[in-house]
Design brief:
The complex is a heterodimer of chains A (about 325) and B (about 400).
Chain A: E1 4-10, E2 14-21, E3 26-33, H1 39-52, E4 60-66, E5 78-79, H2 82-93, E6 99-103, E7 108-113, E8 119-124, H3 133-143, H4 147-156, H5 168-180, H6 185-207, E9 213-216, H7 223-233, E10 237-238, H8 246-262, H9 270-280, E11 312-314, H10 315-321
Parallel strand pairs in A: 1-4, 3-11, 4-5, 6-9, 9-10
Antiparallel strand pairs in A: 1-2, 2-3, 6-7, 7-8
Helix pairs in contact in A: 2-8, 3-5, 4-6, 4-7, 6-7
Chain B: H1 6-17, H2 19-30, E1 34-37, H3 44-48, E2 53-56, H4 77-87, E3 96-99, H5 104-116, E4 122-124, H6 136-155, H7 161-187, H8 194-206, H9 209-221, E5 234-240, H10 248-256, E6 259-264, H11 270-273, H12 283-297, H13 310-321, E7 325-331, H14 335-350, E8 355-360, H15 367-389
Parallel strand pairs in B: 1-2, 1-3, 3-4, 5-6, 5-7, 7-8
Classes of the chains: A alpha/beta (about 325), B alpha/beta (about 400).
The complex binds iron/sulfur cluster.
Organism (chain B): Citricoccus zhacaiensis
Protein name (chain B): 2-hydroxyglutaryl-CoA dehydratase
Keywords (chain B): Iron, Iron-sulfur, Metal-binding
Chain lengths: ~325, ~400
């Protein structure tokens, strides 16, 4: 009998849901934008992903929730932290990964991943929103542009200005002051990105640099930060098509492992387990012998780019489509 | 979980939560002197032998206000709290203070106390920190005699061999009973919140020791031990945190994440009760032996000794307790721990023993972030556990 598992990642600005089948293949995934942590948004994400997969909740053998709001997810059988799930999901999306840098809406993490694609060491940003998605929202507000423009500006910036990366509120004050002094928005944006990269480097230093390194979380879509961070690290970062779903995918795969264990499909030895971990990685092949370097015909897009893009929808859109107005 | 008899536990908890209120009440009741000592090596027996109440001065839970201008922000929270307590009148109940440790930050706090409340005598005699030199024992014995003179001066009472021997006996008995709780916890037959165990130790630091021992005995008499340890929880060792106890809320938070604390080397834990004073021979020389032996039993980052080290002790004690990982609690800016920690981490890392560092502060607890950190740590240990169950 075919069975599926679901992972739900309720973050601070988005709700993500992923369904995988018994082989660990992604069947469907959804990302729902929300203003604040919201049970409604997570409900939308779950319903949408079930609809995309043409499944009902009865078809889901096990659900694991993760993320900042993991305890708010209705119907979850168990919770795992976003650190464990991002490591697992990143290993699935980028087999052989050794370092995961996850930058979400309001926190950032560096995770050293072991041979089995699971957490070895980790470090979280301390209590301030510095270097997170919220930090870039603050930058947009201060420069009065949207996020895409902030990224383009950063890539065009040339001068390195002194901007604190310690605190989002202080940074906003500094940006306004730099504007008043006549600094170019492009240089300001570039400098803020550079300072976030430096701060992230500090986080990485706590767990140790490693290759290959992959970025997950919504901020991984910020091309400027990826560029500055790669420069700061002195190494390439693996860019995922769908960095936002790494946590939910990890949760779905852990749910799959657990359900498989319940069915008695346990592995017999560590080596088989390792191979299975690679297989479990969303059905992607393992990079046997990969030392993390790309090039010479070696790439990390094992599915030949056939993965379906993950639709990102606004919570309000989905609610409208579902019938009654959210108001 | 076991329960500690609530009626017996209540006075211990009250004393642990408000040592100054306890000392004030004791003073009114007995008319005796209250002598404050500072952690971590003052032998309370010396004060007890004069008939005064020895109280290890605790970090206060009140927000640091006046103390902010007395010590820099980069002093540990315990010393900043001491300065604040001195400035806000919280140390009024004490008749004198004694100190034998010489952590730079603690000396800074002692200076502030002397400056802010100059009418309270503060006696400092530096117990040597080089523990295994040929001259170490003789030097500590001299220092014990020096401190004896200071204590006698403050209390106006001569400490005799007989009075000190009697005090040593009651403190040894108190430590023995406390160790029974810790031994039961290690075997898994006692499962009480770590914060409750902390209450037992902390109250012993501030209460009349005979009264405390009677309550401990009553608790033990009324205790139903479990037949076996809870299997589903992850067994952890708590390490670090000198001088001041970690907040009970932090300990509760740890235990909410499917964790059972099976052992520790905290000052408000095993470190404090690890060693008895030899009961035979010259009692003053016995106090020196106690000081030297403690660092062998539970090595400390503030002492230097070539033949023992904290990390080896930690590895051995984990094998003994079956702890699956170590959580190091580090008071922010505690220099001795900060400087030693890389060595601890390296040793545990080399042995593949999971280790997690949590930094603590006087004000606030970033509860959600700490919870996520602990849960991830527990998930990692569980995974390691299930990997080990796989046949080779
Ligand atoms: S040993 Fe650490 S906690 Fe104790 S006084 Fe010194 S710095 Fe503070």
């Amino acid at each position: 009998m075919q069975w599926y598992t679901m992972g739900v990642d309720l973050g601070s600005t988005t709700a993500k849901a992923v369904i995988v089948d018994a082989a660990g293949e992604i069947v469907a995934s959804r990302v729902v934008q929300m203003g604040a942590v919201s049970r409604q948004a997570v409900g939308v994400a779950i319903e949408s992903v079930l609809e995309d997969a043409c499944l009902s909740s009865e078809d889901i053998a096990r659900t694991i929730s993760t993320g900042y709001g993991r305890r708010l997810v209705p119907g979850a059988d168990k919770t795992f932290t976003e650190i464990t799930c991002h490591a697992r999901g990143a290993a699935a999306l980028s087999p052989g990964v050794r370092l995961v840098i996850d930058i979400g809406g309001q926190d950032s993490k560096a995770i050293a991943v072991d041979d089995d694609g699971l957490v070895d060491r980790f470090a979280l940003n301390d209590r301030c929103a510095s270097g997170t998605g919220r930090f870039f929202d603050v930058l947009c507000r201060a420069l009065e542009v949207d996020l895409d423009e902030v990224v383009d500006l950063a890539l065009a910036g040339t001068e390195n200005l002194e901007v604190s990366s310690m605190c989002a509120t202080f940074a906003e004050t500094e940006v306004i002051s730099l504007l008043a002094q006549g600094s170019a928005p492009a240089d300001i944006s570039a400098s803020v990105h550079r300072s976030v990269a430096a701060r992230t480097l500090g986080l990485v230093a706590q767990v140790g640099k490693a290759i290959p390194a992959v970025m997950t979380g919504g901020v991984a879509q910020n091309k400027a930060l990826v560029t500055f961070l790669s420069d700061a690290l002195g190494q390439d970062l693996v860019i995922l098509d769908t960095p936002q779903i790494a946590g939910a995918l990890g949760a779905a795969l852990i749910a799959r492992d657990e359900y498989q264990g319940q069915l008695g499909l346990t592995v017999q030895d560590i080596e088989t387990d390792r191979q299975l971990v690679a297989q479990r990685s969303g059905g992607l092949r393992d990079c046997t012998g990969c030392d993390g370097h790309l090039g010479d015909g070696h790439a990390h897009d094992h599915d030949g780019g056939s993965r379906r893009p993950v639709p990102v929808i606004l919570q309000t859109d989905a609610l409208s489509a579902a019938g009654p107005s959210p108001r | 979980m076991n329960t500690l008899d609530p009626t017996t536990f209540a006075p211990l908890e009250r004393a642990a939560q408000d040592p100054v209120a306890y000392a004030t009440e004791w003073k009114e009741r007995t008319g005796g002197l209250v002598i404050g000592s500072f952690p971590m090596n003052f032998p309370s027996e010396l004060v007890h032998a004069t008939g005064a109440l020895p109280v290890i001065v605790q970090e206060s839970r009140t927000t640091i206000t006046e103390g902010r201008s007395l010590l820099p922000e980069f002093y540990c929270s315990y010393t900043r709290s001491l300065a604040d307590q001195a400035a806000t009148g919280e140390l009024e109940v004490f008749d004198a203070f004694v100190l034998v440790d010489h952590c730079v930050q603690l000396l800074g706090a002692a200076d502030v106390i002397q400056r802010v409340i100059p009418d309270k005598p503060l006696h400092f005699t530096q117990f040597i920190s080089s523990m295994d030199d040929a001259w170490s024992r003789g030097a500590v014995e001299e220092k014990v005699q020096a401190m004896r003179a200071e204590v006698e001066e403050s209390t106006g009472v001569t400490v005799t061999d007989e009075s000190l021997t009697a005090s040593i006996r009651v403190f040894n008995e108190n430590r023995r009973l406390l160790r029974e709780f810790f031994d039961l916890r290690r075997t898994g037959r006692l499962h009480i919140p770590a914060s409750a165990l902390q209450v037992l130790v902390k109250s012993s630091m501030v209460m009349d020791i005979t009264e405390h021992t009677a309550l401990l005995q009553q608790l033990l008499d009324r205790l139903d031990t479990l037949s076996s340890a809870p299997e589903h929880l992850v067994r952890l060792h708590l390490s670090g945190h000198f001088c001041a106890p970690p907040r009970p809320e932090l300990l509760n938070l740890l235990e909410e994440c499917d964790v059972v604390i099976v052992n520790d080397d905290l000052y408000h834990g095993s470190r404090y009760i690890s060693t008895d004073v030899p009961k035979d021979g010259d009692p003053f020389a016995a106090l020196a032996s106690w000081y030297l032996d403690r660092n062998v039993n539970v090595p400390c980052a503030t002492r230097v000794q070539l033949d023992v080290d904290w990390q080896s002790y930690l590895v051995d004690t984990l094998a003994d307790s079956g702890a699956e990982g170590v959580v190091t609690l580090q008071a922010k800016f505690c220099e001795p721990l900060m400087l030693y920690y890389p060595e601890l981490r390296r040793t545990l890392g080399e042995r593949d023993i999971p280790e997690l560092l949590i930094e603590t502060e006087h004000e606030g607890l970033a509860a959600e972030s700490i919870r996520t950190t602990i849960e991830t740590f527990v998930e990692r240990i569980r995974r390691q556990r299930s990997k080990q169950l796989l046949p080779a």
